[in-house]
Amino acid sequence: MKMRTRESIARVAKSRAIGSRSKLRRPRSFESLMNRFGLSSALGDLISLDGRSYVTHAGLLRLANRRRCAGIRTIPAKDFCDPAAGRWVFKATVYKTSTSRGFVGYGDADPSNVSPLVHGAEMRVAETRAVNRALRKAYGIGLCSVEELGWSPREPEPAVSKRQEPTPSSSNGHSNGQPRLRDRLCLLIRQHQLDANLVKAYAADYCGTATLRDAGRDLVENFINDLAERATTDRAALVCHLNTYSKSQEVTP
């Protein structure tokens, strides 16, 4: 009788040990990251793309501020930079305390691994990626940041270009094989998970027209470039600005 009791206790202990090990293998959820690092999905610290979770640059900076980070130093790695080709490599060092030796991270960017929406801003993208990697190392965040992702088109652009070649140019058209402004704006909204209606209201206000359709191509293109830069550098501030247009939509009949 005693032998059976001991065997049952051993089986229970073994099953508990296996269960605890399986829990350790599970990926950390949004909730666990929020509890451990104080990250907020509502503020844009964490986002989900294609079923995968990513931390954002804004979230990492807020984390560093809460943990009283002593400083962040960034310098270009000149031996690997080629400004003429739009290729930049940055080295970032995060100092958690004034006596810290620093946590180093590198980030690179060139026209081949950034979205067409931010072409011309490769230097800023490279610096942001370097800072993100250094901050993730400093605070032990294994989750990749969304700004570190290389860009890959989700729709076959050549097919879009072929369909548009016979049509005359319009305010939303394209030339020289470049994506249409509407496609660029839709991709930007999807990539950064923005509210499409609020973006349209912001665009009309930005262009000074009643609707986005009434705006000229140059104004729309300037708006898209400005929106892309704001979404990349500080998405949380952009979302707060977009939310101001929700009130005007509620008042409008």
Mean pLDDT: 77
Strand order, biggest sheet?
A: 3-4-5
Which spans of ≥5 residues are poorly predicted at pLDDT below 50?
A: 17-28, 153-171, 173-178
What is the distance, rounded to the nearest whole angstrom, between the alpha carbons of the first and last residues?
Answer: 80 Å
User: Helical residue percent?
Assistant: 40-55%
| Most strands sheet | 3 strands, antiparallel
Topology, number of strands: 5
CATH architecture of the domain at 53-151: 2-Layer Sandwich
Strand proportion: 5-15%
Count of individual helical segments: 9
CATH topology of the domain at 53-151: Double Stranded RNA Binding Domain
Q: In terms of structural class, how would the helical and strand content be classed?
A: mainly alpha
Radius of gyration over C-alpha positions, nearest whole angstrom: 24 Å
Shape: globular
Give me the strand/helix succession: HHEEHEEEHHHHHH
CATH class of the domain at 53-151: Alpha Beta
